[in-house]
Amino acid sequence: MPEIEHVTGTASSLDAGISPGNALFGKYEIGRLLGCGAFAKVYHARDVLTGQSVAVKVINKKKIAGSTLMSNIKREITIMRRLRHPNIVRLYEVLATRTKIYFVIEFVKGGELFARVAKGRFPEDLSRKYFHQLISAVGYCHSRGVYHRDLKPENLLVDENGGLKVSDFGLSAVKDQVQTDGLLHTLCGTPAYVAPEILTKKGYDGAKVDIWSCGVILYVLTAGYLPFNDPNLMAMYKKIYKGEFRCPKWMSSDLRRFLSRLLDTNPNTRITMDEICRDPWFRKGGYKEVKFHEELKEDEDHPDGSTSTNSLNAFDLISFSSGLDLSGLFDDSGNPMEDGERFLSSESADKIIEKIQAAALAENVTLKKKKLGVVLEEPSGKFVAAVEISRLTEELVVVEVKSKAGESASYCEFWKKKIRPQLRDLVYKQQQGN
């Protein structure tokens, strides 16, 4: 029976769900902290009756109250309850108190695949073994009408026997979210793994974007680094949009050809799941179809209410922001800018500058045009802000607003309070309902 490392103060940190014997609802003995994020903590735990190790994800309701994250959690519960596959992390049950939600999930001892590949690239045979399991899991999800939309090595766990487990379905979508054009429309995914069609606002096929992400994962496993990477996020997106990557010389010709089909920027000609399973490189090593478990009936009695599958805007999730302030997503350091912001717009650069100029003139702020945008100054000549506009895709531009150190008072007074409120209609807004 595995030992449990008790955490000091566990009962108070997990609230009234913990009994005097330090067991959650009298069922799970809580142990060491495995990880934590902005809204949740994950603990190792043990079933007091069977001794089985589990992971307990604890979500603080107060921290997500009034946000779209609640819908995200409801959807994750709904999706995970319908999936039963040896290469997908199992959700055992969901518990709740007045202030907390508890996901009791399968404990995968080996940790993230990312931690293993970070030590060095894998031989093709080992990469193929993991890729077989990944495709088995993803193909199963697609057959159940589930699209993961955030596949990456950090969301792939490995057990002590080398078995791959797909986790984190928080950004997943289901067929119910497909619009009348047969496509999904939510901006979604982790930047380096996102498919090029997601960078546009024309909609995308959930299965095809998952296949693209699988291609990026396979490249990372066999090369040891990302196919599309750049310290500047916009530059990286441009590489993805154009499909600009090179295979290292140590990759076999069969693998290079296979990757070129997985990372085809045209979703209409990108390789399909059936074609993947017939590919010569993929079929080496004896790929075997997994016999799937029967899909279980979904439990409608979720702890936080309705089983609605309204989608979360992934840009909001990644940046933990809303409206104009998307700095958490676009800042290369991953940290919000002290004085400045970035946002997406589907308007032309000329239209954006025209709108800024009108707002500036109304506030008696001088506007000077520069090569990449404009500079705003007070009547006294004191700097207010610089605005730069760069094209991201054929449909979208990135607008970056910058302030100088020591000029935050002017920036706050003129840009934040007077000019920015007049520009809200310029901010790109996804189509609703997905």
Automatic annotation (TrEMBL):
GO terms for biological process: signal transduction. Residues 307-331 form the NAF domain. Transmembrane segments: none annotated. Residues 28-282 form the Protein kinase domain. Pfam families: NAF (PF03822), Pkinase (PF00069). Keywords: ATP-binding, Kinase, Manganese, Nucleotide-binding, Serine/threonine-protein kinase, Transferase. GO terms for molecular function: ATP binding; protein serine/threonine kinase activity. PROSITE patterns: NAF, PROTEIN_KINASE_ATP, PROTEIN_KINASE_DOM, PROTEIN_KINASE_ST. It catalyses: L-threonyl-[protein] + ATP = O-phospho-L-threonyl-[protein] + ADP + H(+); L-seryl-[protein] + ATP = O-phospho-L-seryl-[protein] + ADP + H(+). Its EC number is 2.7.11.1. SMART domains: S_TKc (SM00220). PANTHER family: CALCIUM/CALMODULIN-DEPENDENT PROTEIN KINASE KINASE-RELATED, CBL-INTERACTING SERINE_THREONINE-PROTEIN KINASE 11. This is non-specific serine/threonine protein kinase. It comes from Nepenthes gracilis.
